[in-house]
What does this fold into?
Amino acid sequence: MSDEAQQKEAERNRNRSSAVKDPAHLAYMGSGWASRSAETLAQHEVAPYAAARRDAIAERFPGKTLVFYAGVHKQRSNDTDYRFRPHSAFTHLTGWGRHAVPGSVPVIETTSNGEIASEVLYLLPTAGHGTDEFFANPTIGEFWVGPRPSLGDVSQLLDIETRDLAGFTEPANALRIGSIGLQDRDSHEDDFDLVEAAAELRLIKDDYEVREMQQACDASAVGFANVLRELERAKAHPRGERVVETAFFAAARELGNEIGYDTIAASGDHANTLHWINNDGPVVDGDLLLLDAGVEVDSLYTADITRTIPVNGKFSPVQRKIYEGVREAADAVFAIAKPGVTYSEMHDEAMRVIAKLAEEWGLLPAGVTAADSLASKEQWHRRWMVHGTGHMLGLDVHDCAAARRETYQGAKLEPGMVFTIEPGLYFHKEDLLVPEEFRGIGVRIEDDVLMTEDGPVNLSGSLPRSADEVEAWMAAAKN
It folds into this structure.
């Protein structure tokens, strides 16, 4: 960054407020503060798991220096930033979730045989009351954003050596992930081999991660219950989808850190827009409401659950027919999911059911059977389900996305994998190739699944799945 650019950055938003520079004022502001009582922090339960993950990544890169940036605040507009959320690779390898200090950087030096020679977490420690940063810096000053932990606090919490970020310089020829943010460098591209390895390291969840995933699913179930309680208000509001969205968001903030992704609250034909996040339409009696939402807990693991419910509490015959067809596809995937089955085979099983339904309902071209459609390049049945049957889930809603195809889509399921099963059927209101009574109906059922030695465990199974169960759930919510 040039000197001129640095000066401009330093003066950004100088018109909003200004700090008094007089030494007397600095001395006054730094005086009269009680000492903070010293706390003895217990080591976080994640610390040994994160240490094992660092051992695993080091083994992949013998004789290298590995750098993982947490990142810094991202600008939303002008001088307002988004709430800070560290890079997933950083969190996975340190265990530091929503409380992570922006700009933090763990550095791992490995030996020639892939063992850890040293590991240091650099972070910006608290500056204390005697500095102008305390009251004059709205980005990191404690007067503005609250106290930061000391180096010793973080070291004790995460069981890793810590050092002041001021002493950090990225080593030459280091492999790195994430945004530097606090220093200049010509290339800001990640080192793809390290990105790939970090993604593949998350394919198998450890016991700590599984517990966090279950917590995220349980918190999300509370969010869905909130929605049912607010459904009458949603129906009465011109932007009822926003009522639905905010009802779920309340649970995310009360029980976790955030939502794990933008909530899809899609009523009626909006359900046929797969990533409908405008959520500004009415919730109409007689329509279906597709709610795709997940709570991200403080450790930053997220759920990703979809339920489709009848707004008036009862499925119409055609709505029930389509809904139960989607559930048939989901149940078929659950039935074959076990260690040794490939990820792509689960998708193929869902497509087999979708093609069968398309044939039974007369949706395929004349003379075309389900088998024909499955074997053809045209894949006619996929007009009504264009997405995949699921994806990996964890710190990212679409976790492990940078993994090699042979370790993900082409890989065999293993115990510890957490993924979604989410078939759907989507009949747009303008789709002239389906019966008129189908048009405007979109259904998806999505569950979060842990693979074990004994088969799949539905982490989101506390939420009703069958049409009868959904109707009973909604009736109970009214009472």
Observations:
- DSSP finds 15 helices and 17 strands in the chain.
- Residues 182-188 have pLDDT under 50 and may be disordered.
- The longest strand covers residues 116-123.
- Residues 207-229 form the longest helix (23 residues).
